[in-house]
Amino acid sequence: MTLVNKGLRIRIYPNKDMMQKIEQNIGNARFTWNKLLQMYSETYRLFKQYGYTKLRCNMTTFNTMLNMLKVEYSFLGLSESTSLQQVFRDLINAFNKFFNEGAGYPRMKSKRNPKQSFRIQNNKKRNTVHVKGCYLHLPKLGDVKFRTSKEYKELLVDSVINNVNVCKEKGLYFAVVNIETIHTPIKSEKDCAVGIDLGLKNLATLSTGLKIVNLNFEKEDERINFYQQQMSRRTKGSRGYKEAQGKYWKWVNRKKNRKTDAYHRFTHYLITHFNTICMENLNIRGMLQNNKWSPKLQRNGLYQLVEQLKYKCDWNDVCFVQVDRFYPSSQLCNNCGYQHHDLGIGVREWVCPECKTCHDRDINASLNIRDEGLRLTKNIMII
After folding, report:
1. Is 111 helix (H, G, I), strand (E, B) or coil?
2. Could you read off the pLDDT of 333-344 as tens digits, one per residue?
3. Contact 261/230 with Cβ under 8 angstroms?
C-alpha cells in the first residue's frame, strides 16, 4: 500500500448566488494572473536589455506584488484568499519551466477560453474544505451540492483533502478535489512483458498481436459541426444561440468522455495483465508540427494515453520503460535482426530478405520495442 495524491472530478450544482461568486472568483484569478504577468514581464524586459537573461521569481516577490494589487483593486478582496495565492504559485511554476525546461513564455489568460477555473487550498487545521453528505463545503461559497459515484463519496469522506479546483467548462460546473489516500496496488495476472507501438491508423498495437483500433467519432463530429453552423447563423447571446450552444457542448462532452473512458479501460487492461510495459518515447510535440499527421494526433490524444499509463504504472508497481524514439523498431526483423533501411512509411507489410519472414509492420515494431525494453531493464520474462 502506498500514499498517493488523486484528483477526483465531481459535478457540482451551484445555485444562482453561488454561480455569481464562482464567476467572481474565476474573473479575479484571471485578472491577478494577467496583472502579475504584466508587472513581471516589464521588469524582465528591463533586465534583458542589460544582459540579464534570468530574473529570479520567488514567493516573496509575487506575494508583495499581490498585496499591492489588493490595495489598488478592492474587488480582489471578494475572492477566497488562498485562490489568489495559488495564482502566483502557478505563475512561478510556469516561469521555472520557461527558464529551466525550455517551455514557452507564460501567456495572458483569456475569458474566451472554454475552461475557466480557480483553486482553493484546504486549511487542514480548520478543515475549511470538507464533505457533508451530498454537499461540498467551500470557503466564501458555502455548501454546494455535488453528485458522484459511491466509491468517490467514500474516498472524499475518508481521505485528507489538499485543495479543490473549481472550474466552469462548456456551461457545466465541476470540482476537482485533490486528496491524499492509501492506494492498494493491483496485482498483474501474468508475470510477463508487452511492447506497445502507438500509431495513427490504429491507436496501439501490442506485441501479443492485439490491435486497438481508433474510436469512431463520426456521429459526434457530425452533430458538433451541425450545431456550430446553427450558432454561426444566430445572434450571439440570443435564446436560439444559447440552445444551440448547449447542445453543442453536450456533444463535445460526449466525445471527450468516450475517449477518456476508453483510455482508462485500455490502461487498466495493461496494468492488470503485464508487469513490464515497453513503449516508444515519441516526440508528440514535434509530430504535431506535421500538417498531415496533426489532425489525427489531436483526435487520438496520445499524450493523454501515455500520461495515464505512467501514473498507473507508478501506483501499481508496474515497470514502465520508454525506448529511445530513434530506435529503428519498424525496420528491424524481429526474427533475424536484419535492418530494412528503405522501408517506406506507407508499407504495412514486408518480407525480410534474409530469413524470408513476412512481417506486419506494427506487430514487428511492438515486438522489437518489447525486446529493447527488456534489454534495458534486464528482464527475461517474455510472453
Report:
1. coil
2. 988 888 888 888
3. no
The conformation of residue 141, written as its DSSP 8-state character, comes to T
The residues, ordered by sequence, that sit 6+ positions from 371 with a Cβ below 8 Å of its Cβ are 195, 334, 382
Phi-psi region at 204: left, alpha or beta (left = phi > 0; alpha = psi -120 to 50)? beta
Instruction: Using CB atoms within 10 Å of the CB of residue 121, give its burial: 0 to 12 exposed, 13 to 18 middle, 19+ buried.
Output: buried
Phi, psi of 174 (to 5 degrees): -135, 160
| 47-70: pLDDT as tens digits | 777 766 666 677 888 888 888 899
First to last CA, the chain: 27
Residue 381 has pLDDT above 80, yes or no: no
Phi, psi for 142 (deg, rounded to 5)? 95, -155
pLDDT of residue 201: 83
Q: Which of 118, 157, 121 is nearest to 139 (CA)?
A: 121
The residue among 295 and 315 whose pLDDT is bigger is: 315
Cell numbers placing 169? 467548462
